[in-house]
Each structure stands twice: as structure tokens, then as C-alpha cells.
Specification:
The complex is a heterodimer of chains A (186) and B (572).
Chain A lengths: L1 H30 L10 E4 L2 E5 L36 H17 L23 E2 L1 H5 L2 H8 L3 H10 L1 E2 L10 E3 H9 L2
Chain B lengths: L2 H29 L9 H11 L9 H24 L16 H12 L9 H4 L2 H31 L9 H26 L10 E4 L5 E4 L5 H9 L20 H25 L3 H28 L2 H5 L17 H14 L14 H13 L8 H21 L4 E2 L2 E2 L2 H31 L17 H16 L14 H30 L16 H35 L1
Antiparallel strand pairs in B: 1-2, 3-4
Helix pairs in contact in B: 1-9, 1-12, 2-7, 3-4, 3-6, 3-17, 4-17, 6-7, 6-8, 6-17, 7-8, 8-9, 9-10, 9-12, 10-12, 10-13, 10-18, 12-13, 13-16, 13-18, 14-15, 14-17, 14-18, 15-16, 15-17, 16-17, 16-18
The chains are: A mainly alpha (186), B mainly alpha (572).
């Protein structure tokens, strides 16, 4: 028994060095060669950091495309979902009010045009994407708020739509931050 | 064909393409045969030397378990103190505080047990030191513990009669050097080049396009996310686990993480067959497990892709399926596939929030964890399946009126008693635990805990009951996912699930290893016309029936009170 205790202590120390120093530090070192230098890729506008490429952020103004509802208001230091169950009455009321908000700010769209992702909170609260349909219902509003041609906005949406992986796997999506940056750059 | 479905089919096929050769490789590694990774031998020799280990020393099953338990208990003490004092230790750039003793108790058991139930949130609850030197460290060694325990079982059935089952330390170290560490290294690089942070930079701050100030948690995440999947641990770096865009940046990384969590459990089954030179047995086990996977996956897909009927009633479009708690870049199909594999295999990482999935999906998630052996966790999945095998052998023996045998060894009263205890343990822990929780919720709602019992539940009615049932089931299965709406960081949940995790981990390791050790030491009986063959389709069906009947009898009433009741109320 005593032998096992001593062996356990020594083995644990050796493995701590291998698994918690050598392994992660090597990976961290190599990660410096990745796009974001291992700290997450940043997005800049006029030389200023305005966000992280992978993280969604809150958009509420009419001239921007809106992202999905977030349970944590896009707090990138406290990710979480709503954890609301599908039959929870309070939750269903909340969804109803999101539908009403969308209908109010996007006159001309029908209820049946609204995709589920635009009225439900994401898992991380930081979802950077919306569905193609989610972007489509906002095109008229954004064009009107910016007083630009609807066709131009449609083009930008198409340009910022991410097709399924290798064209074959998974859903397509629209990156909200990139799309809004492209709009600002017009 | 729908690209969401082709995505999951491709993911499953790629999993097999990697897992099957990996299984053959593992059989050779643990048998000490020549393999291409033998260049790592000097590293292993160095580790043995520094630790004072002589791998030539043969252990019987009792010594194996003593070694296993000794080192695991050591990790419990080590981790507990780091968690409590993390605020006073270095590597804490975000200035997070130390854990309360009950939270530390829960967290350390959870990580030692390969469960990774998290009652804290990664961004605010732990320091970088804790993330790496305790949590990530345990993700490696707990997975290796499971694999090594399974290899002890392999050893018992390789030779006709034996009490010498190899050296625990050798299996344990090789699981790390030949399997977990190299694969984690490759995967961590794939992740970091896809956007996952891997450096030691602390929190960042920026002003968003609209003018809001946003804080961003970062840190060495890629390293941990790699092993959390390969080791079927599931404990995320960030609170939202693999739904977080940093942990899982794209559909591609989602495929990688899905593949990573399944390959070792499948490889262990294949390795078992090749190691004991009974390939057909491995393929029948693999067959039963795979049928189990699809029987849970297909109905899950249909309920998630169908969307929430309550939202459909409001008149919105449901073409994108149920999206509450899910991410657009994965979509409902890949999220449903993930939630199936993460529950049948005891990973417990999530790429969407289970609390918000459809009621029937909740049923399949719970059932996957209750069965806990359709592939199952690293090493331990096979150990759990072994118990079902022994029960199936026993019942078949009774049916044909012969002394039951398994692989040439008589299965007698002592082995059956152990198997029965282990079989009964899960329903006991899950149901008694849930019953106590429900009692406290209803009768002692005002108890003065950090979260008062009456405010535990994030959802009313049947779904609330499901939250408690899920927490206990996940703990017992060492899964670690949760219906995260549950207010679980308080004395009751920390202590109760801590105990459930501990018992649900170590007894189901001790039991099968003991049975294997006892059987392996018995006289070998050559196969005859009267032998019950365990590698036939008939026997596979028998095992499957045993699994279904045992679990249905144990859990149907509890499932009926939770997710099934919610499902039927939503129908009307």
C-alpha cells in the first residue's frame, strides 16, 4: 500500500509536468502563428478593435442587421443559454413579444416569414450568425434606415452568407458582424 | 439531400474510418506488440524511472484496483485544496475567487470521476491554474484510468487461466503517451488554427460597432477542449461549453469534436476483440451498441427538426427546426446528433442547451445516460456493457438449464451477485437522489441555502422535475451535462451529486474488474456443443433485450413523470 502511495505521488508529479506544462505551452507557442495569435481573431474598423470575428455582438439600431436574442445580452465574459424549457409559459410569452417586436420594426413581413432562430435565444448567448431567412426579413428595414437601394443590401447579404461546409455539410448562415461592417463601409 | 443530414452521416462514417484502425492499434499497444509509435518508449521508460515503477511486476485484480484507487484518492486531495485556494495561487489574471468547500467537493469528485458536471462557470469560477493544473490534468488521467481498467479486463480473458493481469501503471501511462496526448496535441492545433484561443492572454475589452463596452474571456482553451472530447470528459473551458463560438468555431470544428468523443469508446470495443483473439465478439458488441445509437438518434432528429409545436402555434416559420439554446452554425440536426452521442457516451459536453430541447429529446437523452453503455465513456463504457453481458449470460443459462459460462469460464454465484449489485446501483442512486431532491423542493422550500430549494427550478411543472431527474442521472452516469436551468451551486446539489458521482464511478469500475479477475482465475473449459456462444446474433439480441428490459423497468415511471408527461401535455 505504502509503495502505491509513493508511486502515485511521483507519477502525478511527472505527469503534471508533461500534461500541464509541456503540452499546453507547446500548443500555446504554436498558436502564435494562427490568425488571432492564439488570443482569438479580432475585427477592426479604422484601426480600432470593434469585436472578435467569432463572437456575436448586440445590434438594436434599425440601420444594422440584428442578431439572435441572447440570454446574457452578448456578454462575452459570461456565456450561457436561456435554459428555458419548450413548454414554459413565461418563455412562450417572451417569444411572442419578440415576434411582435420584429413585426413592428419590419413592416411588410408576415408572421410566417419569421424563422425560429430570430425569436429564440442561442446556446452560448454569443451566436455570431443568423439564418438566411433571418437576414432576408430585415433587408427592407436596413435599406430604408440607411436610405440605400434594397438591391445593394441584398448583394451584401449574399456576399456575407456562409455556404454549408465544403458545399455539402451543415446549414448555411449569415455572419451578422461582418455584414454590418460591410454596410458601414459603403 | 438536406446538407444537415449529409453532415451527420459524413461525421459518423469518418468516426468509423478513424476508430476501427485505432482499435486494432490499441490492441497491439496493450499487448506490447510492435507499433509505429514505439519511438515513444524512451519517454515512457523515463516516466517509470522517475516514478519508481517496475512494469515487469505483475498485479492480480485486487492489486490493480488498489493502485487505481490510491492514485485517484490522491488526486481528490490535491485538487480539492487547489480549488479552495485558487485565489491565493498564481495564474489568475482575471482575479477569480476561491471555491466554497461544497463546490470544491463537487467539482473535484466530478473531474476525478471523468464526469465533469460543472456547478461553476468557466469564465468566472476558476483560475487559469485550476483550468490547467487540476481540471485539464484530470481530464487526461481520469480517461486513462478508465482505459487502464478496461485493459485489466482484456487481460483476464486473453489467456486460458491467469491471475497475472499485467501492470496497472503501464496501461495507465501508455493510455496517455500512446493515445490521449498525441491525439490531443493534433486536435488542439486543429482547433487553434480554426480560431479557438490557446495562449495565456487574460481578459480583453473592446467597444462594439454599436458602442457597447464588451469584456471577453479568453485563455488556453484549445488544449482543454481537445482532451475534454478525446477523454469523454466534457467539461468545457467556457460556461456555454461547446456552444461557445471560441470552443467550437465552425461546422468543421463541430465535426472534429463529434468525431473525437466517439473514436476511443468504439476503438476500445474493437481492441477488446483483437486483444483476446475473438474478433467476432467485438463486432457483435459493436453491432448492438450501434443499433442502440440509431434507435436513440432517429427519434431525436425527428423531434428536433420538427421544431417546437408551441412556437408553431404562434404562426412563425419552423423550417429551421427547434432553435432555442442552439447555434445557427450547427443547426438542429448536428445538435441532435451531438446530444445523442454526448449522452450515450459519457462525454456530457454540449453544443446546444439540453434544457431547451424538445420533451421527447429529453427522454432520449436521459435514456442514453441511464443505459450508459452504447459505446459509453473511455474504457468504462465497455465495463458497463460487460455487466449487461454477464446478466445476459446468466439469464440465458437459466433459460436453457445449464451452468452459465462466459469465454470458457463458469459464471457462478459470486460473480452474479456482484453484477446484480452494480445493476441495481444506478436506479438506486438516480431514483433515490431524485426523490430526496423532490421532497426537499416541495417540503423544505425555504431552507437557507445559497439557492433556496423553492427557486431551484428554472421551469415549472413536469419540465422542472426533469431538471432534477436529469441532474441525478447525469451524475450517476458520470456524464456531466445538465438541464442547466437547475440552480445547482448550493449545499444540497453539490454534496448529493458529489456522492452520486463518486459511487457511480468507482463501484462500476471495481465490480467488472473483480468479476473479470475472478473469472480469469477459474479453470478454462474448452468449447463444446453445449456451450452458449456469446458472439452470435441470437446472443446479441439477448443482450439488447436485457439492456432494454432492465432500463425500462427501472426508469419508466420516472420518465413518465418528467419528459413524457411534458410531451403529452404539449400535444393537446
Amino acid at each position: 500500500m505504502k509503495k502505491y502511495i509513493i508511486q502515485s505521488i511521483r507519477l502525478t508529479l511527472v505527469l503534471l509536468v508533461l500534461l500541464c506544462v509541456i503540452y499546453p505551452v507547446t500548443v500555446a507557442f504554436i498558436s502564435k502563428m494562427s490568425k488571432g495569435n492564439g488570443g482569438g481573431e479580432k475585427v477592426t474598423k479604422n484601426g480600432k478593435t470593434v469585436g472578435y470575428a467569432l463572437l456575436g455582438q448586440s445590434f438594436t439600431k434599425p440601420q444594422y442587421f440584428w442578431g439572435r436574442p441572447s440570454a446574457v445580452a452578448y456578454n462575452a465574459a459570461g456565456s450561457a443559454g436561456s435554459n428555458k424549457g419548450p413548454s414554459n409559459p413565461d418563455y412562450l410569452k417572451e417569444v411572442q413579444s419578440r415576434i411582435d417586436t420584429l413585426l413592428k420594426y419590419n413592416p411588410g413581413i408576415k408572421k410566417s416569414d419569421i424563422p425560429a432562430d430570430m425569436v429564440t435565444a442561442s446556446g452560448s448567448g454569443l451566436d455570431p450568425n443568423i439564418s438566411e431567412q433571418g437576414a432576408a426579413i430585415q433587408i427592407d428595414r436596413v435599406a430604408a434606415a440607411r436610405k440605400i437601394d434594397v438591391k445593394k443590401v441584398k448583394e451584401l447579404v449574399a456576399m456575407n452568407t456562409l455556404k454549408p461546409f465544403m458545399g455539402l455539410f451543415g446549414p448555411s448562415s449569415v455572419n451578422v458582424l461582418k455584414l454590418n461592417l460591410a454596410l458601414d463601409a459603403l | 439531400m438536406n446538407t444537415e443530414l449529409t453532415g451527420i452521416i459524413a461525421t459518423f462514417l469518418l468516426t468509423l474510418v478513424i476508430a476501427i484502425p485505432l482499435g486494432k492499434y490499441l490492441a497491439k499497444v496493450f499487448a506490447g506488440e510492435k507499433v509505429w509509435t514505439d519511438f515513444l518508449k524512451p519517454l515512457e521508460t523515463g516516466i517509470y524511472k522517475l516514478s519508481g515503477i517496475n512494469i515487469k511486476e505483475q498485479m492480480n485484480w485486487k492489486q490493480q484496483l488498489k493502485a487505481l484507487l490510491t492514485i485517484n484518492i490522491l488526486w481528490l486531495f490535491y485538487g480539492f485544496f487547489v480549488l479552495i485556494f485558487q485565489d491565493k495561487l498564481p495564474f489568475n489574471p482575471d482575479g477569480n475567487s476561491g471555491m466554497t468547500p461544497d463546490l470544491a467537493f463537487n467539482t473535484i469528485i466530478s473531474f476525478v470521476a471523468n464526469c465533469n458536471l460543472q456547478h461553476y462557470s468557466g469564465e468566472s469560477g476558476v483560475s487559469y491554474l485550476t483550468q490547467q493544473y487540476v481540471l485539464m490534468f484530470l481530464q487526461f488521467v481520469s480517461a486513462a484510468t478508465g482505459i487502464a481498467a478496461a485493459v485489466v479486463l482484456f487481460k483476464a480473458f486473453r489467456d486460458k487461466t491467469t491471475t497475472e493481469l499485467g501492470n496497472f501503471w503501464e496501461f495507465f501511462v501508455k493510455s496517455i503517451t500512446r493515445l490521449l496526448l498525441p491525439l490531443s496535441f493534433v486536435m488542439a492545433l486543429i482547433l487553434t488554427f480554426s480560431g479557438t484561443p490557446a495562449s495565456y492572454d487574460g481578459k480583453d475589452k473592446f467597444i462594439s460597432l454599436q458602442g457597447d463596452t464588451v469584456n471577453v474571456s479568453r485563455g488556453p482553451a484549445a488544449q482543454m477542449i481537445a482532451i475534454k472530447h478525446l477523454g469523454t470528459n466534457g467539461g468545457g473551458y467556457f460556461g456555454a461549453n461547446s456552444a461557445h463560438p471560441f470552443e467550437n468555431p465552425s461546422y468543421f470544428t463541430n465535426m472534429v469534436e463529434l468525431i473525437a468523443q466517439v473514436i476511443i469508446p468504439i476503438a476500445m470495443v474493437i481492441a477488446f476483440g483483437y486483444f483476446i483473439r475473438r474478433k467476432k465478439l467485438a463486432w457483435t458488441i459493436f453491432g448492438v451498441m450501434t443499433i442502440g445509437l440509431f434507435m436513440l438518434l432517429i427519434p431525436m432528429l425527428s423531434s428536433e427538426l420538427g421544431g417546437n409545436p408551441a412556437l408553431a402555434k404562434m404562426g412563425i416559420s419552423q423550417t429551421t427546426g427547434a432553435m432555442e439554446g442552439k447555434e445557427v452554425r450547427f443547426g438542429p440536426a448536428a445538435s441532435a446528433y451531438w446530444s445523442t452521442v454526448t449522452t450515450i457516451i459519457s462525454t456530457g459536453s454540449v453544443n446546444g442547451m439540453h434544457d431547451s430541447t424538445m420533451p421527447m429529446s429529453g427522454t432520449w437523452q436521459l435514456l442514453g445516460m441511464m443505459i450508459n453503455s452504447f459505446y459509453g465513456g473511455c474504457g468504462v463504457g465497455l465495463l458497463n456493457y460487460f455487466i449487461y453481458l454477464i446478466v445476459a449470460v446468466f439469464i440465458s443459462g437459466l433459460m436453457v438449464g445449464r451452468t452459465p459460462e462466459f469465454l470458457g469460464h463458469k459464471v457462478e454465484a459470486r460473480e452474479i451477485k456482484i453484477a446484480a449489485i452494480i445493476t441495481l446501483l444506478s436506479p438506486f442512486l438516480i431514483l433515490a437522489g431524485t426523490a430526496i431532491a423532490s421532497y426537499i423542493f416541495t417540503s423544505h422550500g425555504n431552507a437557507a441555502w445559497a439557492v433556496q430549494p423553492k427557486s431551484w427550478l428554472n421551469n415549472p411543472g413536469f419540465h422542472g422535475f426533469s431538471e432534477m431527474l436529469y441532474e441525478m442521472t447525469s451524475s450517476n452516469a458520470n456524464n456531466g451535462s445538465g438541464f442547466e436551468g437547475l440552480g445547482d451551486n448550493n449545499m444540497f446539489w453539490n454534496v448529493s451529486t458529489g456522492i452520486v458521482i463518486f459511487l457511480g464511478r468507482f463501484l462500476p469500475i471495481i465490480g467488472p474488474v473483480a468479476i473479470a479477475g475472478l473469472l480469469g482465475a477459474k479453470k478454462f473449459i474448452p468449447e463444446s456443443a453445449g456451450t452458449l456462444k456469446t458472439d452470435t446474433k441470437t446472443f446479441a439480441l439477448m443482450t439488447f433485450a436485457v439492456i432494454i428490459v432492465l432500463n425500462a423497468l427501472s426508469y419508466f415511471p420516472a420518465l413518465a413523470l418528467g419528459p413524457l408527461a411534458e410531451y403529452f401535455t404539449m400535444l393537446k
